[in-house]
Amino acid sequence: MTDLTKLEADLSALIAAAPDAAALEAVRDAALGKSGSISDLLKTRGAMSPDERRERGPLINGLRDRIGAAIAERKAELEAGELDARLAAEHVDLTLPPPPERRGRVHPTMQVQDEMIAIFAEMGFGLAEGPDIEDDFHNFTALNFPPKHPAREMHDTFWLPQDEHGERKVLRTHTSPVQIRTMQRTNQALPGWIANGPPNGGEPPIRIIVPGRTYRSDSDATHTPMFHQLEGLVIDRAIHMGHLKWTLETFIARYFETPLVETRFRPHHFPFTEPSAEMDVKCDRSGADIKIGQGDDWMEIVGCGMVHPNVLRTCGLDPDVWQGFAFGFGIDRLGMLKYGVPDLRDMFASDVRWLDHYGFSAFAAPNPATGLS
Ligand code: PHE
User: Using one digit for the tens of pLDDT, what is the confidence trace for 187-222?
Assistant: First the structure.
């Protein structure tokens, strides 16, 4: 008959001496595994006489329990030891320099937009916004584009598929629809779109700028299918072309931080302004970079004019009382001119090397008091 006392002493010694988790597991298997020494003993109970079983059964069970507990205890001990050993071996060297950190840059378009907002804010303009997906009414009809007029095609419009009401929405081809949304604000419920319109809720006088994305199917060195415009709208009594010219020229001198930039106004046609004009800036585009203040080239940067009486009437304003001017700048083009970007398409190619070169630090927020960039 197995000597239980000796078996317990042998197993206890093996458990205490197990140097690691694997050795301990081997001991556990030899004692309590499928054909371990204690498991074999447990199996013998079936063949015992009732008296024998009453006497020896509890002894075998007790042995099994104590050995099981001893293994668990040793296991916890070994694990604690492993942790101590790891803590002793591993340490953090706080004197090491941190890994280089990739810092994001502000895109030139966003920098220029912030510069423009800062300048116009100084001139007393509030900020308004509108949706990128427009309806035909706001993008064309209310802006005095006659139905079926070729001017509707002039913009190479991206049309969306017809919706369930038979209506075709457009990706707005310009920011001018926000003129309509602003002037109609008192007449129609247009919740949400005007972020911070005129303080009096749309009644003239109105003095707003509208920065935003615009879309036309067009691509070359100075056109991309998505680009940015900054619209301006001023409505008041006795407003005339002189106010418009002063506003744009003052802005340009401020934006380029020199009064020497040469500009010219050319007569133009827009359905929603009368008279209409475009303003160009003189620059040099002969080399790899665009240079402002030199050369004989002109770059168109803004369309403008006096708000057409039909547009005022559509928005519920009496043209005999209210007049106004509007303008629409190409924000990206102003960025090309100021920061010497030769090809507009690079602006939206999402090339990180390009952004590292032309981008701005997030701390260089434009501030008219301390410098624009
Ligand atoms: N919306 C015109 C364009 O995109 C620009 C413009 C705005 C012209 C306001 C006149 C007045 O070309």
Answer: 343 443 344 444 445 568 899 999 999 999 988 888
269, 270, 300, 327: residue to mutate for ligand 1 pocket, most atoms within 8 A of CB: 270
CATH number of 108-358: 3.30.930.10
Helix residue ranges per DSSP H, 18-106: 21-32, 37-44, 50-89
226-242: per-residue pLDDT in tens? 999 999 999 999 999 99
Contact indicator for 295, 286 with CB cutoff of 8 Å: yes
205, containing H or E segment: none
Rg (CA), the chain: 40
Instruction: Identify the residue whose C-alpha is closest to ligand 1 atom 10.
Output: 304
Spans of all domains in the chain? 4-89, 108-358
CB 226 within 8 A of CB 216: no
CB atoms within 10 A of CB 333: 24
Cβ(257)–Cβ(372) below 8 Å: yes
Q: Model confidence over 282-320: pLDDT tens digits?
A: 988 887 777 787 888 898 899 999 999 999 999 888 899
Asked if residue 232 has its Cβ within 6 Å of ligand 1, the reply is no
Quickly state the pLDDT bin for 370 (edges 50, 70, 90).
low
Residue-wise pLDDT for 78-100, tens only, equals: 999 889 988 989 988 889 998 88
CB atoms within 10 A of CB 94: 5
Name the one residue in this structure whose structure tokens are 């042995």: 63
Whether the CB of 139 sits within 6 Å of ligand 1: no
Q: Which two tokens stand for residue 233?
A: 């709208």
Reading the block at residue 139, the tokens are: 């993008």
CB atoms within 10 A of CB 166: 6
CA of residue 273 relative to chain centroid, distance: 35
Give the whole-angstrom CA distance, residue 11 versus residue 83: 26
Tell me the C-alpha distance between 107 and 56, whole Å.
85
